[in-house]
Every structure is written in structure tokens, then in C-alpha cells.
Design brief:
The protein has about 700 residues and is mainly α. The protein contains 34 helices and seven strands. Helix 9 runs parallel beside helix 12 and helix 17 packs parallel to helix 20. It is elongated and about 115 Å long. The relative contact order is 0.07.
Length: about 700
Amino acid sequence: MAQTEKKGGLLRKSSASKKPLKEKVVLMYDEIFTVRKDPSKCNPRFWEELFLMKVNLEYLEGKLEALDGEELMKIKDNINCLFQHCIQALGEEHPIRVVNALQTLCALIRGVHQKNKSTSGFDIINMLVGFDKAELCMKNLMESLDSLLCAEGSESLKSLCLKLLLCLVTVTDNISQNTILEYVMINSIFEAILQILSSPLSRREHGYDAVVLLALLVNYRKYESVNPYIVKLSIVDDEATLNGMGLVIAQALSEYNRQYKDKEEEHQTGFFSALTNMVGSMFIADVDEKISVQTNEAILLALYEAVHLNRNFITVLAQSHPEMGLMTTPTSPVPTTPVTPLGTTPPSSDVISSAELPLDADVQTSNLLITFLKYSSIVMQDTKDEHRLHSGKLCLIILTCIAEDQYANAFLHDDNMNFRVNLHRMPMRHRKKAADKNLPCRPLVCAVLDLVVEFIVTHMMKEFPMDLYVRCIQIVHKLLCYQKKCRVRLHYTWRELWSALINLLKFLMSNETVLLAKHNIFTLALMVVNLFNMFITYGDTFLPTPSSYDELYYEIIRMHQNFDNLYSMVLRLSTNAGQWKEPASKVTHALVNIRAIINHFNPKIESYAAVNHISQLSEDQVLEVVRSNYDTLTLKLQDGLDQYERYSEQHKEAAFFKELVRSISINVRKNLAFNTLSQELLLKEFSTIS
């Protein structure tokens, strides 16, 4: 017997003498697309039979693609009819029909939206459902999806419902131009999403898609109208739901961190590592550049919206759980899917069960904030890549929101909540890689400061990321304001921060001409100088010991040449009538106390050296001079050092978020197009119809 092969909806015998045979479902599609009347007029069981047959997505979308706008308008009634029958089929008892209806809806929505990219100019809602029936049809569709998501039934059906909703949301690059979403706003599925996140089983299966869907829905026309998803997300206070959302986000970020660590270890043990050892460290940066895992902006956006909109979510950041990067493999079989970038696909599991304990006895508990800080330390290493730049910026915006929150600051600075946070550090020739085991357990704010210091030290380059530097300094300033206000004496290696800040000023001066062509470097310089003013004016209220305050003066005196050079530069520009006169003048005024310290102590140190016949003083000798000459030092009181402007998304970040959401929408859609609409698993689950 001749073998039969299936291709593009055709059943073809290997013998070339016979005409190819089409699948029945393909013939039925042809009838819908060619006949100008309801196909059920000729066959009363047409729609019933259609939804019993496996959907041929490729053929259905291809058929829509092949028609031009005019041809599509001619069969609009049939497309409306198909769309309406799909919605009716969602209420059927037989899951096979529901599955096929959901698949068909995906193909129709994608196909019709694809046609709208041309110049045909037809209205998508009219083409899919017809204006006269749109409100009722979309209400029925959303109610059916809501029922399927909330029901006790098949997890596969719930998964497909979420895929359909993601398809619906992301068919346009700019989701705010997707008019169908008005019906998703009116007929909310918010409670269904929360139910998924609060249930351990549903969360494990669907948590990732639910969180990404919620993040996208929150961003629909968020600046132009009242978005009900924003309003509802801001008032959620159910602990199980918020913790569930946190676990989904933590698992996705942990998966990214694990993938990066695996790749890093491959490089260290592989050929490149051997080569580097042979020829020295000259290639270390090139080797590291190849360690690349695609960033996950979708899940990061979800974290941002939760932190920014819901104050109750702040508690979730500190919720302890076992280290997520080291968990036992789930015992239940996981369906295999094609490998796709992490930025568009969910991790293999979303929650921690009681069986998922750390494999290593030394592994400590972790929390969402630690996982996020580790993620940030990876993506912020390389800001030359656009996606990483966006991810890095979003990480710093999230940290800005956290640094402004009173409760977040309380647990960040809590001495009873000490963690060992292993941040990733960029390989640099002049420093050795820190051993993980040597890391001390400290309050979480120390890890935030470490992250900022690491960024400051490692990104002084030609393509200077000014915006990210400004955000880093703002985060440090907000943390210091809390410490000053609450008199928190943090045991931190402040010298590392002071040194990084002074080196940053040195970099700005060395590259004045190049940087001024692109940036107002005086804004950043003023912020850095005012951080020092904050330490000088209020340091005695929050530095851990009196000797820490002495060390601050020592660093200023030791590096006085940098401050002298900065003063000369800003004085030169402030006395000219150029564009930088005013911003440079502000820095000149801000330097008054730093210059007073230098001018007061330097003569004393020189005098001490002369009297004692010492050519070069040790640190202890300089500190002795400093301590004995505080009384005669006069400083000016500077106002507003402990004040800051609170973060505002709408006024300053709207353009960034519009572009970010656009990028995420394209990514999610691309992923849906390739692997998440496969029917094989669904049809196996529903292989019998009772």
C-alpha cells in the first residue's frame, strides 16, 4: 500500500498519478472562505463537526494571509459567524470542542490583525465580530475564559485560555492601540489571574503566563484613562496571592541567574579558561562578553508594577524561602517544548514545594530581593546591549521605588535579617575575583550599596551611561536620608563608596570635552559632591563609629587634588558666559565645605610633618591630626541635603515604559507563534469524548 504523507492540509499519496486529497477540516475552511453564505445552510451539522476536528493552524492563518483586504471584506459575515460559533463552543461540555474553538480563535485574531498591517484600513473588531454584536460577543468570550480559568477542570485548557489572552493582548506592537482590549478592561479577568497565583497547583502550571499577562494589561493606556487592572492591583492585600506572585517572579529570575552561572562555569572550565591561563589575563574581558543569557524584561516589568503600585507587595520582597537556584528536579514529567529565549518563555517550575529543598547543606534561605539583586548584578554588567541597558535601567527604577519606601527600608536595614548575597562582579584585570565563601552576612542594604558601587566602578567608559549613574547616586542618597532620619548606624565599608565616588569625579574631569558634547556632567558632579556634603553634615548621626567619620575626612584630604581640580574646572566654566555657567556655579557653591576641610587640615598636616621631621605621614598620623583639629574647623550649614524628589513614572518615564512594553509585546507574540499553541498534548489529554 502506498504511504500517505500530510503537508499543508493535503493528504498526498506517494504515487504521482493521483490527485492530492485535502483533509476534511481544510475543505471546511475553504468553504468558509469561498462561499458567501453561512456554510451550515447546506450542512446543518457544519459547526458541530468543525470543532470536533483538529485545527490546522498553519492552513487557517495562511488562508487569511493569502486574501487581500477587499476579498476579506466579502467574507466578513462568514468570519463573524466562525468567531461567534467559536465563542459558543467554549461553553460545550466536550473539551475537544473547547480546545479547537480556542485554537481557532487564536488563528483568527492573529490572522485578521496581520491583515490590518497592510493599507486595507478595515476595522478589526468589525471584521472579527461585527459592530452590532461586538459588545455581547466579547462579553460572552471573556466570561467563558473567566469560567474556564476559575474552574476545577483541565490545566491544559487553562493554559490555552491564557495563551489566547496573551495572543489577544500582543497582536499589536503597541498594546495601547489594540482596541479589542477595551472589552478586556470592561469584562475583567483580574480575579481569575489572582486565583491562579494564589493556588499552588495553578501557579506551578500557569503562574508565569498569568504574571506576564497581568503586567501587560496594567500597561494598556495607563496614562490616558483609568485602567481597572491598575486600580485593582494597587489594593490587593491577600497574602497568599501576593506571595504567589512573588514566587513566580523569583523563580523566573532565579532561572536566569542559574543559566548565567552555568555558562560562567562552562567558560571557567573550558578552552577559553585554559587559553587565558596560558597567555595571561589580557583576554579576560573578551571571554566574558560571550557569557550571554537573554534578559527577561517581561517578568521584570511585573516586579516593577507590583512594587510600584502595591505597597503590600513590599513585604513579599523579604519573604524567606530556600535558595531557588538549587532545587531538586520535579518528580512529575515536564512536557518538552522547543528551546526559546528566556525572555519570552516561562521557567520549568514556578513555586517551591516542601520537597524542593536546597541540595547543599551550606545553602542559606533567600528571598525575592536577593534574587533580584543577583539578577541586577548580571544584567548591569554590560550596558552596551540595548536589552541589557533597558533591563539595567528598570532594575535601578525598581531599586529607586524600594529605597523610597519606609517599610522596605526598615527590613533593608534590619540587623536581625542578615544575608550572604553573592553578587556577580565584572572581571577586571586589576582585581581578583572575590571568593563566595568569604562573603559576610550583613543587612540587605549592604548588598544594594555593593551593587551601586560595583556599577560606578565598572562603567566609566566612552559610551558613558549617564542616566544609570544618576539613578545609582539617587538610590544611595535616598538610603542615606533614611539612615539620617532614623539614626541607623550601618556597619558598611563606606570607604569603598567614597573611593568610587571620587574616582567618578576624576573620570568626569578627565573626559570633560567628550562628555560635555553629550551630557550635562555637572548634574552628576553636583549629586556626588552633595553625597559627600551629606556625610560631612550628618555623618555623625548615621556612620557606625566616630573613627568612620575621621576616615571620611582622611579620604577627602588624601584625594584633595581631585576636589581641587574639580573646583578649578567648575570655576572656569562658571565665570564664562557659556551654556554651562549656571550648572557649574551650583557645583562651585556645593564644594564650599569640602574646600574648607582641605584648606583647614592640609596646613596642619604639613606643620605636623615639619615639626616631627616626617617626609610622609602614615594614615594613623593623619587621623591624629584630624582628631585634634576638629574644634577650629568652621563649616557652613547647607539646606536640603536630606530632601529628594520622589519617583514619578508618568512625568519622567512614560516614553521608556511605552518602548519597553512594545518590546515585550513583540517578544511574547513571537514566542506564541512558534511553540505554545501546539495541540499534541491537549489532544492526548482529551483523546476520548464521552
